[in-house]
Design a protein that fits this description.
Layout (H helix, E strand, L loop, with lengths): L5 H21 L2 H17 L2 H5 L3 H25 L18 E3 L5 E3 L1 H9 L2
Antiparallel strand pairs: 1-2
Helix pairs in contact: 1-2, 1-4, 2-4
Length: about 120
C-alpha cells in the first residue's frame, strides 16, 4: 500500500456500486445515502471485518444488504403500528406476551393482541 487509508480506498472503489444497490432496494435516494453512510460507519467501527475478508466488496454488500433489510422491517413495523396506536410507554409488548402456536409447533408472538388488551380495544 502507498499509505492511503484503507477505508477511503474502499469508499472510492465501491461507493457508487453500493449506492446503486441501496437505491434499488430502498427506491429513495435519501434512504440510500443514509444507508451508504451507515455501511461505511460500521466498517470504520469494525475494521477487522475488512481485514478478515477475502472480498471487501462482498463484505460491503452484505453490510449494506443487512442495513436495507433492517430499514424495510422498521418501515413495515411503522406501517403496521401507527404512532397513534402504540402504547404510551413506547412498548408494544406486554411484560407477559401472549403466544400462539404455529402449524410447525413453534410459538409465535402476537403483539397486536397485547396492544388491544392493554388499551382496552
Amino acid at each position: 500500500m502507498n499509505g492511503e487509508d484503507p477505508l477511503a480506498r474502499c469508499y472510492d472503489a465501491h461507493a457508487q456500486a453500493l449506492f446503486g444497490y441501496l437505491l434499488s432496494q430502498t427506491r429513495q435516494p435519501e434512504d440510500a445515502r443514509d444507508l451508504l453512510q451507515e455501511t461505511f460507519l460500521r466498517l470504520a467501527r469494525q475494521p477487522e471485518l475488512l481485514a478478515a475478508a477475502r472480498s471487501e466488496r462482498a463484505v460491503l454488500f452484505r453490510i449494506a444488504h443487512n442495513l436495507a433489510m433492517d430499514l424495510h422491517r422498521r418501515q413495515k413495523f411503522a406501517t403496521v403500528w401507527p404512532r397513534s396506536r402504540r402504547l404510551a410507554t413506547g412498548s408494544l409488548l406486554h411484560p407477559r406476551p401472549i403466544l400462539m402456536k404455529r402449524r410447525s409447533g413453534r410459538k409465535r408472538l402476537r403483539p397486536w393482541e397485547n396492544c388491544r388488551r392493554n388499551n382496552g380495544l
